[in-house]
Backbone:
């Protein structure tokens, strides 16, 4: 007598992930503590991307849940394939990449009651998802991610992940300028000029806005135009910008964020951007 084929049970979190993926939302499993699974053996310590000294930099291609937001996918074959099976069997939650292709979202993560009260008084209404301690306010549109933009508030969009806690309530609305402004830091005050002062005395030449703006725009263009050797191009560009504009106090965090954003559009990780910037400052004795 032919034995019936065993019915394979699909883990609950995998069912949720497949449903989200079918709607175009990139997903990945989370283990206990709301953190991603560790690197797979092939990609231990991010050897397939994210480090300047590796021979094969770039997005992970191993199809394993090992790079947090970068591992998020909508491919059902990847989600159900053998490399991911153990992860889904052990998963404690599902995460999604809000800023990923197909999702196009930004999550304002409000971590406590004070943060929620601030959002209700300051932000346009949108879809809201209750969390353990606060709320997620979800907007249509993508911006850079940033932590601690104000007390109890994180922004999760590009190159980040958020825990899936259900569809929420309310109507999804467009990302407002109020939220975009959260990651724009106030310009640093101009310090007294000690370098790059004309020999005859006078003010810092960078106080002409057009001069500094032209330099930053040229640096962004140089990074964006790179077709190979992106790591080296980013470092050399950071070095040139700091050498020309970095000693008089006119270069602000906003300018640095623009350069980092340009580098990240070419596949650089936030960590590599920070390392390249720090290395350039060290090379210049700053």
Residues:
């Amino acid at each position: 007598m032919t034995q019936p084929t065993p019915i394979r049970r699909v883990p609950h979190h995998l069912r949720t992930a497949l449903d989200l993926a079918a709607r175009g939302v990139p997903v990945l499993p989370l283990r206990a503590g709301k953190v991603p699974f560790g690197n797979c053996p092939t990609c231990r310590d991010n050897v397939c991307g994210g480090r300047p000294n590796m021979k094969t930099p770039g997005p992970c291609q191993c199809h394993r849940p090992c790079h947090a937001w970068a591992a998020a996918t909508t491919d059902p074959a990847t989600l159900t394939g053998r490399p991911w099976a153990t992860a889904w069997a052990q998963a404690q939650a599902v995460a999604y990449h809000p800023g990923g292709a197909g999702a196009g979202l930004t999550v304002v993560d409000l971590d406590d009651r004070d943060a929620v009260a601030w959002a209700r008084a300051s932000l346009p209404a949108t879809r809201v998802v209750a969390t353990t301690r606060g709320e997620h306010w979800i907007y249509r549109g993508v911006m850079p991610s940033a932590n601690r933009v104000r007390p109890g508030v994180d922004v999760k969009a590009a190159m980040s992940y958020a825990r899936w806690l259900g569809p929420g309530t309310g109507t999804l609305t467009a990302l407002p300028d109020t939220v975009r402004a959260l990651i724009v830091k106030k310009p640093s005050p101009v310090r007294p000029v000690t370098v790059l002062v004309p020999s005859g005395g006078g003010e810092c030449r960078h106080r002409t806005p057009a001069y500094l703006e032209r330099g930053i725009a040229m640096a962004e263009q140089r990074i964006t135009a790179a077709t190979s050797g992106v790591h080296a191009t980013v470092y050399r560009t950071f070095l040139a910008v700091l050498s020309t504009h970095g000693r008089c106090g006119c270069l602000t965090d906003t300018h640095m964020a623009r350069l980092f954003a340009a580098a990240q559009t070419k596949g650089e990780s936030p960590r590599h951007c920070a390392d390249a910037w720090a290395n350039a400052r060290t090379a210049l004795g700053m």
Summary: The chain is about 35% helix and 15% strand. The CA atoms of residues 184 and 226 lie 26 Å apart. The radius of gyration is 22 Å. Strands lie at 27-31, 35-36, 93-96, 105-110, 127-130, 135-140, 146-150, 153-156, 162-163, 173-174.
